[in-house]
Amino acid sequence: MNAARIAYRPVGMVLGAAGGMLAGALFKRVWKAVGNADDAPNATDRDRGWTEVLVAATLQGAIFAAVKAAVDRGGATAVHRLTGSWPD
């Protein structure tokens, strides 16, 4: 195991938690702007239609995936700068 991978593990864990919180907050703001309600629907919400539930889930997944990719890439880049090796 290389030094970059070892250095990235704790960084990745912290960034992952922070990224999850950021993605959740970002999704809430986006949903307030595009949704018909303040809160996004749950899949089992009886008062919400299929379209609204599926759009919310798709949007949430896209935001979480984009934030995760950005955070992972930023963390890997930072570790590369510090160690000179890319964390595989």
Explain what the structure shows.
Helix content is 75%, strand content 0%. The protein is mainly α and 88 residues long. The protein has a domain at 40-88.
Strand content: under 5%
Q: Sheet with the most strands?
A: none
Order of helices and strands: HH
Q: What's the total number of strands? A: 0
Low-confidence stretches: none
Termini separation comes to: 9 Å
Organism: Streptomyces hazeniae
Transmembrane segments: 6-27
Protein name: DUF4235 domain-containing protein
Keywords: Membrane, Transmembrane, Transmembrane helix
Sum this structure up briefly.
The chain has 88 residues and is mostly helical.
Question: How are the elements arranged and paired?
Answer:
Layout: H1 3-34, H2 50-83
Helix pairs in contact: 1-2
Which key phrases capture this entry?
membrane, DUF4235 domain-containing protein, transmembrane helix, DUF4235
